[in-house]
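Suppose you are handed a protein chain with no further information: no name, no annotation, nothing but its sequence. What can you learn? This example shows the usual starting point.
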Amino acid sequence: MLIILEIYILFKLIEIKMRSVKKKKSDMKVIFVIANCTWYIYNFRKDLFRSLQSKGFRIILISAKDNYYKDISKYLFRFERLFLVRGSENPIFEFITLLRILFLNLKYRPKFVHNFTIKPCIYGSLIARITRTNNIINHITGLGPSFFSKRKTINIINKILNPIYKYSFSGRNTLNIFHNIQDRDLFINKKFTSIKNTEIIQGSGVDIVYFKENFIKEKFNKNVQILFPARLIEEKGIIELIIACNELWEENYKFTLNLAGDIDKQNKSYLKEKILKKIMRNKNINFVGRTNNILKIYKKTDIVVLPTWREGLSKSILESASMSLPIITTDVPGCKEVIKHGYSGILVPPRNANQIKNAIRNYLENPSIALKYGQNARNSVVHNFSLERINNQILKKYETYFSK
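A reasonable first move is to predict its three-dimensional structure. Written in structure tokens, the prediction is:
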């Protein structure tokens, strides 16, 4: 109890000391951004940060630091390191993270906070409300396994945290941005927020100039290249895809499966070493791993398959569609918003290896239909999911807050 009192007194002293700093910075368009890691910012929000910087905004980024920090640092006014482990359920780690966010809120006294991804949204908006930050945006890019897990431990934790979710996401000055309607409706049904506090902005957008095929294919390559562009975790449907491909290879269909994604050990469903070694022994499978030049991979690809169980809104599907590639993905939130079944791709049920197998066979035997779907997918992305369109929607929100 004494320690808690001492911490409280310390924070109050810091708060009093920083009031003058708040006044000095009041004329600056400072954005307080909290994210789970710099990898996320680099891969999903780099262009948004570039646009903000060009418009005179100053970004203070609070996130875990990784190898992508140097690439994103040029867009930052200031960086503060956050001790955050995405898959952690350790209460001590989580409490340390909360204290760090609290300290930084008291240090900077931000007028505007933008949180990205679910854990920073919960923690960032909770602390922002406690410290009476005027404006909060929560960018809920996906809900993660904890919202759908059947594990007893997770269910108990969620019941305990429900009041915190409601407090974090229901503030009068809080806007919760979702990538798809289903995620938004889940939050509303659980009474975490209300319709007036929400908005749909579909994904992070795609650079339709950069991700553009140089020429329209008339047929597949002789050695058909199929791409799985995602982390090697069960939730992305990698196991079902391997089963489907093995059956097709046994039926003498000729193609190579390229796995372009890393092994995310912070995710509970990452592929264990024994399973991974078995997969890698297959001569028809090529492990690309994480790449900084996914465009090069797309240019060598004939078909993209992402049988994910759920997404916020899949960036790899957007990029593949922008490249006019034939796509097979699942009929789930975050994918079906981009792909229209039988027009711009094939949608299959989640966790269904047989349907994945049939869809791949359909493309292999009907390349003209597959390539037509790819062209239709490109047209859809150009009209609905361009980077400029998506970023402009976010920038309008910023301008509204700073014009108050």
